[in-house]
């Protein structure tokens, strides 16, 4: 069973702590769908805060546990899949391809045409772009306007093999990254609830599980509370 | 062919202990499943590592993965050249792509020999 949790838009530090709590948790597979209030920039785990010194001073910035480039989380649907690694067997690339192919099919049913890049930049070198959406590469989902879905993973083996997969589906172009594609580019964009349903169906199909609405457990909530101070810590955000 | 004088964790780290000093790295299997490596973070000389706990992190284009220690002890050295030469991990994961040298106080009871690790990799696919 794929437990599906739909959260209200939440503070950046809470969002990141919640996703880590799910990664460290016991539930075999949870899909959390959420948004950001306030809108914020999330840095990839290895990115340097110094590279973002030009952002407006009031911009909330948080460091993700997952890799990749920075994302300006504006009007979007963010999802976090936390699952046992056995449910996403194969290598990292395999997991992206399976998940993204299902999302392409799901979005197409609502009139949002996108495709997974088969090839593209091999990206053997360190990322040249600081923004996740700036340079679509292999396995990214794109439209003719640019990259539509930002994705990144964290993989752990202790306490047991688990994967956290982050996805950001852009609804409207954020101010700091106007070069992205957006769901609202189509003439009759699907509603937010429709998009949540489509993403849920795509993830469930990828894992071969049945999706069911679920809730946070008290233990998960408590773990989130205990993890959040790290994401609030300016030293963690500026660790690079 | 993986070396027979190394021990392995299920999480795909290897270690080779000689005269109480462990050399630690990640295996060819780990490298092939991560692909397109971009960043590596290793602990500094003088820090300590603990069996089963994360000693570092590695990022591929699509994922950050934690690295787990097969031993406990003091870090005597880390491969400072490796973060700028991550292609070494693909070329020589058991040689010049070593990550840490550790003065060992204990070795994980969960380490496997080469034959068992080969079977583990085959089972993981």
The ordered string of helix (H) and strand (E) elements of chain A is EHEEEEEHEEEEHEHH
CATH architecture classification name of chain A: 2-Layer Sandwich
Beta-strand residue percentage of chain B: 35-45%
**Number of domain modules of chain B:** 1
Outline type of chain B: globular
Mind explaining what this structure looks like?
The complex is a heterodimer of chains A (240) and B (125). Chain A is 27% helix and 24% strand. Chain A has 240 residues and is of the alpha/beta class. Chain A has one domain: BirA Bifunctional Protein, domain 2, CATH 3.30.930. In chain A, the strands form two sheets. Chain A has an eight-stranded mixed sheet, sandwiched between helices. The longest helix of chain A is centred in the middle third of the chain and has 17 residues, at 92-108. The N and C termini of chain A lie far apart (38 Å). Chain B has 125 residues and is α+β, with helices and mostly antiparallel strands. Chain B has one domain (7-120): OB fold (Dihydrolipoamide Acetyltransferase, E2P) (Beta Barrel), CATH 2.40.50. Helix content of chain B is 18%, strand content 40%. In chain B, strands 1-2-3-9-8-5 form a six-stranded antiparallel sheet. In chain B, strands 4-6-7 form a three-stranded antiparallel sheet, with no helix packed on it. The chains are: A alpha/beta (240), B alpha+beta (125). The A-B interface holds A 44-46, 65-68, 89-93, 96, 122-127, 137-139, 151-158, 161 and B 9-11, 32-36, 38-39, 41, 52-54, 57, 59-66, 68, 87, 124-125. Strand 9 of chain A pairs parallel with strand 7 (63-68) of chain B, so a sheet runs across the interface.
């Amino acid at each position: 069973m794929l437990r599906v949790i739909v959260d209200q838009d939440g503070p950046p530090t809470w969002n990141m702590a919640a996703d880590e709590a799910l990664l460290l948790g016991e539930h075999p597979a949870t899909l959390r769908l959420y948004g950001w209030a306030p809108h914020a920039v999330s840095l990839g785990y290895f990115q340097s805060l110094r590279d973002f010194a030009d952002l407006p001073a009031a911009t909330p910035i948080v460091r993700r546990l997952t890799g990749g480039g920075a994302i300006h989380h504006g009007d979007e649907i963010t999802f976090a899949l936390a699952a046992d690694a056995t449910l996403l067997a194969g290598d990292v690339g395999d997991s992206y391809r399976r998940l993204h192919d299902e999302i392409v099919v799901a979005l197409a049913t609502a009139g949002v045409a996108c495709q997974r890049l088969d090839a593209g930049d091999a990206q053997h070198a360190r990322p040249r772009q600081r923004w996740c959406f700036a340079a679509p590469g292999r396995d990214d989902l794109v439209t003719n306007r640019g990259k539509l879905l930002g994705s990144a993973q964290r993989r752990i083996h202790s306490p047991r093999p688990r994967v956290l997969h982050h996805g950001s589906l852009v609804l409207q172009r954020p101010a700091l990254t106007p070069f992205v594609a957006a769901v609202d580019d189509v003439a009759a964009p699907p509603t937010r609830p429709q998009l949540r349903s489509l993403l849920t169906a795509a993830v469930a199909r990828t894992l071969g599980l049945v999706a069911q609405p679920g809730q946070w457990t008290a233990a998960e909530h408590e773990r989130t509370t205990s993890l959040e101070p790290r994401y609030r810590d300016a030293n963690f955000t500026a660790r690079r | 062919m993986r070396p027979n004088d190394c021990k392995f964790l299920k999480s795909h780290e290897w270690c080779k202990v000689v005269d109480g000093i462990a050399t630690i790295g990640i295996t060819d299997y780990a490298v092939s499943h991560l692909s397109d490596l971009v960043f590596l973070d290793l602990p500094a000389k003088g820090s300590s590592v603990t069996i089963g706990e994360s000693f570092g992190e590695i990022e591929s284009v699509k994922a950050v993965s934690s690295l787990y220690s097969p031993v406990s002890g003091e870090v005597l050295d880390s491969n400072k050249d490796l973060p700028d030469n991550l292609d070494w991990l693909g070329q020589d994961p058991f040689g010049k792509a070593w990550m840490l040298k550790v003065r060992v106080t204990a070795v994980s009871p969960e380490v496997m020999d080469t034959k068992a690790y080969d079977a583990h990799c085959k089972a993981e696919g």
